[in-house]
Specification:
This protein is an alpha+beta fold. A hairpin with a 2-residue loop joins strand 8 and strand 9. It starts with a helix and ends with a helix. It contains 13 helices and 11 strands.
């Protein structure tokens, strides 16, 4: 589990994020440390310059004797805890040569320098041996000094011990290092938790996928209330699985129904041929057997052609052949053909197509769709009945209705009749293979339309809806 967690993309991204964030934090804290050090040095230099200015004022008013007396007093009071004072003749000790050996200064000029504290002050050996570890450490620290040249070869030095300031900076640096380590550690922990959470959800997906691979198509990916990218992906996968399950069920149903429907004509064909071999038939007898066999073969071919048409309609094989079809002449031509057949069957036929409207589609598939619907209407409408086809347009939608006065379809069977090889009990005695309405639905859905079965009181009313194309759009396209 630990190895798989390290191999997750979430953990790797979290590790990169931790490194980058820690680097940015280190840079930010380093800038704070640098600014703090510069600010402390600037404040120290300002204090040294102010103290030197006060002493120079005293020197200008009272000369060397007054300055010497004042500095002796300062070195003995409480201020000596912060400042160090020295007034030296350059002939005795040239501090400028120690600080800036290659720099020439005129009387009144000043120079800042950072020196070891033990070079600024002198501690007797006896006192140095008596110092504790803190005192010896303090002597090894730096001191900030301001050296000013005076007339008559004198030089005045005002310095400050940096021990406490450097200790403060060291504490700041330790805090910064600790913060960077804490940030990096927390980022790693958060990355591990995120990686574990992602790995857990991926494992659930993998387990569900494994069950689906084993054949259980009813399994679905888990969808939580977070509505994150995993949930949105799982919703798409679940939709795909539902579609696959539906197609598999349809395939099993088609296979079973096809085997059942083809068994009867094949058995009849075989029995008929077997009888013709046993019996001595005359010419007319053989012709009858041949005619009946051809009829059975035609029924089988019709079944396969219907299945092929449904498959082509669902796959969109003819989409490249789509054109704008004007429904007015299209339906009027079909109505003219079926009005003649209806008149011969003793059925009245009427059609109303008041306006012209165009839809985008494949004319052969749509013609087969309307033909199947009109064939069903002719098949189930009794003599003396009525068939009507009307077309109207509403909100850029073309609505075609085909109604008859036959027995109709029960409400609880209206969804079932669109399934392949489904035939109602009232249609068992009539020719057909139960694929007509399945083809109609496949073609309508491929054309982004809808089909609905309603009562005609009496009879059935089939309502088809397609997207109508605006004439202005059609002109611009032309």
């Amino acid at each position: 589990m630990r190895l798989r967690l390290v191999n997750t993309s979430a953990f790797r991204l979290s590790l990169i994020y931790a490194l980058v964030f820690s680097l940015i934090s280190a840079c930010a804290f380093s800038f704070i440390y640098w600014k703090s050090a510069n600010e402390i040095r600037a404040q120290t230099d300002s204090q040294l310059r102010a103290e030197t200015t006060n002493l120079l004022g005293l020197y200008q008013s009272g000369q060397i004797s007054a300055l010497t007396q004042e500095m002796n007093q300062l070195n003995t009071d409480g201020r000596s805890k912060f400042f160090l004072y020295a007034l030296l003749n350059r002939s005795q000790r040239d501090l400028l040569a120690e600080i800036e050996p290659n720099k020439e200064l005129k009387p009144g000029d000043s120079v800042f320098a950072t020196l070891p504290l033990k070079t600024v002050i002198t501690v007797p050996e006896a006192d140095e041996d008596a110092l504790n570890s803190d005192g010896k450490a303090q002597l090894n620290q730096d001191a900030r000094v301001l050296l000013t040249l005076l007339p008559d070869g004198y030089q005045i030095m005002v310095g400050s011990d940096l021990y406490e300031r450097q200790a403060l900076l060291k504490r700041i640096l330790n805090v910064i290092i600790s913060l960077v380590l804490v940030v990096f550690t927390l980022a790693l922990i958060v990355g591990a938790l995120i990686g574990y959470s992602v790995l857990r959800r991926i494992n659930k997906v993998r387990e569900t996928a494994g069950e689906i691979v084993q054949g259980d198509l009813s399994q679905r990916m888990q969808v939580t209330e977070k509505n994150d990218e995993f949930d949105r992906l799982n919703l798409v996968v679940n939709t795909m699985l539902s579609r696959i399950e539906q197609l598999m069920q349809t395939m099993h149903q088609v296979t079973d129904n096809l085997a059942h429907d083809l068994r009867n004509p094949l058995n009849r064909l075989r029995n008929r041929l077997e009888v013709s071999l046993i019996q001595n038939l005359d010419r007319s007898g053989y012709q009858k057997v041949q005619r009946e066999s051809i009829q059975d073969i035609d029924d089988i071919i019709l079944t396969f052609n219907s299945l092929l048409s449904i498959a082509q309609a669902e796959s969109g094989k003819h989409d490249q052949d789509w054109t704008l079809i004007d429904l007015k002449p299209f339906i009027e031509e079909l109505a003219e053909l079926y009005s003649i057949a209806a008149e011969e069957a003793g059925i009245t036929f009427s059609s109303q197509v008041p306006n012209s409207c165009k839809i985008l589609g494949e004319s052969q598939l749509l013609a087969q769709t309307f033909t199947n619907l009109l064939d069903n209407a002719m098949k189930f409408t009794p003599k003396g009945g009525h068939i009507d086809i009307t077309t109207r347009f509403s909100k850029k939608t073309a609505i075609i209705e085909i109604s008859d006065t036959g027995p109709g379809i029960p409400v609880d069977k209206r969804d079932e009749v669109f399934e392949r090889f489904t035939r109602l009990d009232s249609a068992r005695s009539t020719p057909g293979n139960g694929l007509g309405l399945s083809l109609v639905k496949a073609v309508v859905e491929r054309h982004h339309g809808s089909i609905e079965l309603k009562d005609n009181n009496p009879g059935l009313r089939v309502v088809l809806r397609f997207n109508a194309h605006d004439p202005d759009t059609q002109k611009s396209d032309a």
